[in-house]
């Protein structure tokens, strides 16, 4: 079977050629601005005008919701970037674990380029489709609220950087500056509000698609059984071999496995306890993937797996089948062990934190897709392709909405923040000064994170 990557790269080549031909045949209509080539059109202007005139009362009332969403997104993104920056800079492991540059545009094949196994593939096909899904509502929302407030629209169009595209709606800047603060705020926040609505729509679509196209097929686990050992009583080897991922240690005559760097950190900081993997059947077999059968019996939940394990005694030999995405099933022959008087396999799940915003999102997702259950597509690879496309669309829609509301010069949030401080203080100079300070602080934080990222290579 031909890999999806072959078709996707072929599409990338053909699309790039199509863009080159398009630019060459219409070069008289192109204008270079910075590193982009802009192609201005009047596409969509009639729709923008019609919408603003057809629903003026609804849109006028909606402006309050739009502006409120803008402030909510701004507060949220400032908190997120602050927390991320602090954790990234202070953590001894985070930068090295992720290894993705802090400033990096979302490009096709990003998970593959940086070996981000926890993310689904990001094909060029996804990139093109999602750009259209996100950019068109975003820009048209700007245009609709501009015309609602009598701000003229000069043109619509596309920006080209090689095969990479951008869309824009160009309003009259003189009209924009002359408008009152409230209309400006609604115009600036309209694009991100459209992205939030897009994310909600595709989340509903993803839910409907998932419950109709996927079925439970196995049990997920993300680690092996562990124990917390008193550090002072653990027998360590004379050489910790820091270049290894795990080394063998002993406690009360039992064998365990621990990360040597973590052991060194425990000793250096005089910590009292040490986390280590048990010498369990799952660890010995290096069980990987999702468990689909236990000794020939299909299992689709941890309860079913526990019930099957309970039918056997310590020392019994069993065969376990697992599956990894896009790989053939793997069979493991192993001998069950005993722990606390019960038959023991040694798989475990560490759930994400239930605290904060991410914890809330995790709880919502868990209501739809049980993280402990492995699901298979009843539509084969096509079902997975569509599911991942919808997943990326939601993630990128939310990301674009958040990033665009950063109080930073190049984003909608920059002027949104300036107008807010100006309105609160009654002074344009104070607003501009606050805007400059916020821009400098955010850039300094990003620079500090980049410095931390560079240090992982030394």
Write the layout of secondary structure elements.
Layout: H1 4-25, E1 30-33, E2 36-41, H2 45-54, H3 56-90, H4 94-98, H5 110-113, H6 124-148, E3 153-161, E4 164-171, H7 173-178, H8 181-213, E5 214-219, E6 223-224, E7 226-230, E8 247-251, E9 254-258, H9 260-268, E10 273-278, H10 281-285, E11 290-294, E12 297-298, H11 302-310, E13 317-323, E14 330-335, E15 337-339, E16 342-344, E17 347-348, H12 356-368, E18 373-377, H13 381-404, H14 412-425, H15 428-455
Antiparallel strand pairs: 1-2, 2-3, 3-4, 5-18, 6-17, 7-10, 8-9, 9-10, 11-12, 11-13, 13-14, 15-16
Architecture overview:
It contains 15 helices and 18 strands. With 458 residues, it is of the alpha+beta class. The strands form six sheets. A four-stranded antiparallel β-sheet has the order 1-2-3-4. It has a four-stranded antiparallel β-sheet with strand order 7-10-9-8, with helices on one face. Helix 3 crosses helix 8 and helix 8 runs antiparallel to helix 13.
- Order of the strands making up the biggest sheet: 1-2-3-4
Ranges with pLDDT <50 over ≥5 residues?
A: none
What structural category characterises the helix and strand content? alpha+beta
β-sheet strand percentage? 15-25%
> How would you sum up the global shape?
elongated
Q: Compute the gyration radius: what is it? A: 27 Å
Largest sheet: 4 strands, antiparallel
Chain-averaged pLDDT: 88
Strands, count: 18
Q: How many DSSP H or I helices?
A: 15
Give helix % range. 40-55%
Number of domains: 2
- End-to-end CA span: 42 Å
